């Protein structure tokens, strides 16, 4: 299910939140509305954590993570780091990395298996990503833009990319990522996909400017229609069990 | 995605996305909305005028451009389109791409213009939209038309041309000059009067220009006056009627003149009897016995104004019996003369008696024995001139020959049309006025045409037009004549025709 909401009257909610299969990070806002929407949807399933990164509210664009780990920029304070380590489940590795490009959310787009990164990322960072997040890393651009984390939103079931992506690019990315991809828009024709929406395997949140058409595209590409949290686990269990001993 | 710079570029086909509003498949654009949704969202013609009023004068078909200019334009013309587009305000916020008229019934008093404008919206998308502007046409007479309507004969300035002689030769010639130079194109009305012509103009400046023109082609003196018609005390506007009285000197070509003694002295004893050879803005005088000439311009003439002793109406025909050149050829003021002694007899005397005159004449270059010549008969003339009386002991010659006569040959050619013709001004002639003699005027006109044929320098300034009704076959039969009549050579007509082609727009043009 896709939910429409706003952060302090701004529809760019992907900037102020980060949603993965194991946890959800939310920025500290003036009113509790933003947080309570997330809580209403996710509280029984995954922890929803209020935090700031480097003293800012734009946490969605500064960090990158999936169910295996969370990467934070070098300017994250120690208290924030500690707070996150405490609040998140133990299976999630929280790591602060030293990278010149500190807006990791803009540079890295990932799901639980693959990650697309900014072509100019350091070697060490790339190794760190592969290590902490447990993913295969590909340096790519999306529709000619190097900030892949902004123009592409990924989950394990599908992905939405910048509307100007050509068909060849779509095919290539799709082959790399092994998920179906669609070029589309969010928030009434905005091309910055990841800023306008945040998504995991069973739910998505998008800005309130998103039109019904865009919403239907989201729901179809991320396969949210029949998704329930437990269904994921059941399905996964079936595919996970390889052989019966 | 690897892209080799320079040589090899990856082929990329643009995919399609769904319009974020209506969901139809479309090519992605800057707004990511299909054109229809974008248009429904944003109206770039907001704030632009959609209905305008324009004022039109039905008499002269012009449109008012405030505050005062009236622009002539036909319906659905380029000028009208420019005028309509200029009328719209705020059109500089958008870019105008195309404008055209939509047909409306002329009686509906509405003009519709379809405009296509472009403007940048949202994030870089340029939207093009077409919209119609409706112009309501209000009829209102422009100032000049209302003035004409109020009083069609209303003139502001009048020029009264007068010449106090008994013939109209000067006015025929002036008429042709005016036609050639288009000097009377601003005249509202032209009226023929006794001993002159009246010209009426709508503006004082036009009348002034006309008076200057006449002053350049004839020796004139003029005076002008004005009469108050109305005056507005609030704006201090005074409306006058201006009148210019222009008098042309009564001396004409081929006149015999007796100069007053004072003038004779100041001109260096130029014999008191002189012939006038040419009148432009100065008078050329020729002493036929000494072959001396002089020029008097308008000022000099009017200071010592003199009248003609005898004019061309009083020319008598003579038969030349013998010619003896006395001096060699002299060029005087552009024409050649030879002083000669001639024996002449009047044609009326020719068979009847033996009255022969021995005279000195300046026409030795064209006269041969047996020719006919025209001259002034001073022997039998009874002249009442004051000036002549002042000369004591002056022996007046008997005959002064003026020009060669082609009367015989003209008799043969009578009734045949000329190869050329002249145009005429649009004059109002009052035919019921006292003293109006139609026969006299037509014979004078015929004489004027003959003068034109005989004198190349007289037709230098005029435009002659080819006569379409002229039949060349008739001319062939009379080519066998011995001596030809002086006629205007065809190439002169052609040369004139070049000008007339440029000036006139009628069917007188011939293939060149």
UniProtKB/TrEMBL annotation, chain A:
Domain of life the protein comes from: Eukaryota
Protein location: Cytoplasm; Nucleus, Nucleolus
Keyword Cell membrane part of the UniProt annotation: no
Entry keyword annotation includes Acyltransferase: no
Protein name, entry field: Eukaryotic translation initiation factor 6
Main localization (coarse): cytoplasm
Alphabetized InterPro entries for the sequence: eIF6
Quaternary data: Monomer. Associates with the 60S ribosomal subunit.
Alphabetical list of CDD domains matching this protein: IF6 (cd00527)
Gene: EIF6
GO biological process, one term: assembly of large subunit precursor of preribosome
Record-stated family: Belongs to the eIF-6 family.
Record GO cellular component, one term: nucleolus
Record's function text: Binds to the 60S ribosomal subunit and prevents its association with the 40S ribosomal subunit to form the 80S initiation complex in the cytoplasm. May also be involved in ribosome biogenesis.
UniProt organism field: Erythranthe guttata (Yellow monkey flower)
Molecular function terms, GO-annotated: ribosomal large subunit binding; translation initiation factor activity
Keywords on record: Cytoplasm, Initiation factor, Nucleus, Protein biosynthesis, Ribosome biogenesis
